[in-house]
Batch of 2 targets.
Target 1
Amino acid sequence: MIRGRTALGWAQLVHQPGRFVMALAGVMAAVMMVFMQLGFMNMVFDTTVMVHRLLKADLVLVSPVVRDVAASGTIPRRRLMQALGVEGVADGEALYVTTRDWTKPDGERGTLMLMGVRPDFDAFRDPDITRQQRGLAQPGTILLDSGARGDYRGVLDGLRQGQEWTTEMGGRRVTVIGDFRLGASFGNEGLLITSDDTFQALSVNRDPGAPSIGLLRLVPGADPAVVKARLSAVLDPADSRVMTLEDFVQHTRGFMIRNSPIAIIFGFGTAVGLLVGAMVVAQILTADVQEHMAEYATFKAMGFSNGRILSIVYEQSAILAMFGFPPGLGLALILYAAIRWAVSMPISMPIDRVAIVFVATVAMCAVAGTLATRRARKADPAEVF
């Protein structure tokens, strides 16, 4: 048998340092590109549902045409009142959502999502919002998303010192009395939270009897599936439907996947990244095999099988995957951090993504090795002797 096969594969790679570095650069670039494509795709999906996850409700009443919180349509308020009479429902309140322009600290106009709810209703999971929410009973007051896109450092510093900031929205003066952190999305620069009364004052021709979403909380121990079935039986499906909060999240993600080209675009980018990496590695390994054809032919003349000889090329592929993946991951993490800082949008690196891309990298290099072994299979002892 061939002894020290891994050492032989390593020796062949480092014999040409420039070629080895080029191969590693190809793997690193492919890994980085795949991470960026997956990161952008999931960032779009995550920002679309991050407001959903901010809400504190067991069940939600939504319009039959709902897409997400920002494009939720409206429901008749009487459906919310009707739901409060269903067994298992403890409390509920109307949530109003729209998009409004306002004046930033630098004088520029910005577009943020505006959300209004009764100040004494515990509608949000964020304790920072809950702690400050009752202060919104004062007309014209709002809470600012500190992760909103734009330069709000001066405003936030002032809030930390107990100062308030007044600006203009929809031709009316509004006062920021506090902040919380959520972050921007592709559709909006951030989120503002206010009372239902202030929301109506800031909205144009908005009917108070047509909220965007109904938030329902159940009595302790009630089964959400059972209460959901009871509500579905009494509500009119022509103007409202009931979902669990997680159902609402999955509904929005599913709508994005089915009705937008986002998954296709970023999926294609991921495939291109892997293809480019595979071609670069295949060319490098093919050149290495061509350079050592005489040695491979000698091994065959000594009686070694094609499989054992080709294992050297596959070992080189594994080495390139092992050494090219970490710098690609490191570069992607740096770019993720730069994106979070530049656009104030959440982009993260979950461990399952790292595992998936690592497996894809190994597979990419294995495919490249397979392409390169075509030359090694043709090694003929007769050409050497």
Note: The chain has a mean pLDDT of 85.
Target 2
Amino acid sequence: MQDEALQRRLDTVWRMESPRLVARLMRMLGDLDSAEELAQDALVAALEHWPQQGIPDNPAAWLMTTAQRRAIDLLRQRRLHAGKHEALAQEPEWQGSVVRDHEREVEDDIGDDLLRLLFVACHPALPADARVALTLRLLCGLSTAEIARAFLLPEPTIAQRIVRAKRTLAERRVPFEVPRRKALPQRLRSVLEVVYLVFNEGYAASHGEDWMRPALCEEALRLGRVLAGLMPASAPVLGLLALMELQASRLAARTDAQGAAVLLMEQDRGRWDWLQIGRGQAALEKALALGGDDDIYVLQAAIAECHARARRAEQTDWSRIAQLYARLASVAPSPVVELNRVVAVARAQGPHVAWPLLQALHGDGRLHGYAPLEAVRGDLLAQLGRDDEARAAFERAAALSGNAREREALLARAAAV
């Protein structure tokens, strides 16, 4: 039992501290593979020493000091192999960082390193799936096996993505730095896209037996909070954090006791996390105060906040939501946004007003094979009293869905028409 307790404690410390370790080692070594390897070496050293010596008072400091000492040894070896015999004392930055107590580490330095690592992991040169995998590995401390389980993919597939991503970063010689002001908006957008991709996969799993994967939502929220702490004056960062907090507040109400999906208008709002809603509202207020009115994440957060303000489903301000979707569509045109606007218009003004808007989307090839399009079509047809067509639309939506729980919910709606 003692060994199990020790392993659990070490797992927790590792999950919390591995991003800091890798970020600091990456800055020291300029080599992502070596940084990860030495961070793992520090973990192995803890597994060897802590059972005999006990858990140190500050386990994070122990891991950081151990990792940095090994990094200095590696730097010394590199110098020797390169035929350079300068004393390591000429490298005061790293020598000092080891002897300083971790408690007195300059948190700004650590924060800067984490931010640099996040921008490296989310570099636009990498495909989106590789950015997601690398971010979960480096910034969330998830193992390859854990990432593979989360996305229902073979472990070798995830391992290959990570290896290819590291190779691409090395070949491109991507610098370990926060982009300069001119390049920051594009690069930050890439970072936010990755975090939101992770959150969305947790909130509404694209494949598998489960309606949600809450662990992924938690990891995305953790990244969002880290980003907000490092970039507290960024409206897009605060907007994304607000959006995730508000959406995550509904997680407990999105399934019933059997794990079946419960749709938004049918949820028991007493099960919503109102403290988390308050955090989301506070982040949204800050984002708006910073001038983020037209940012895509701020607008989506404002939509989520409209739902959060309604203590009962019938109190939802659908007219306001329709207006926000219209604004979002003008800022970031997307057929998915337009589809969501159709739903809001139907709620606010009725199915007869929304139907022509939906018909216009049927010719958009980007929505071909998109299950929610058929689900919305089924909804409107049911409201219009065209039951047979509605039933067929729900059945088509179920056939297109890759998620078992979503298929069940769609087939149940077909049967209920």
Note: The longest helix spans residues 2-29.
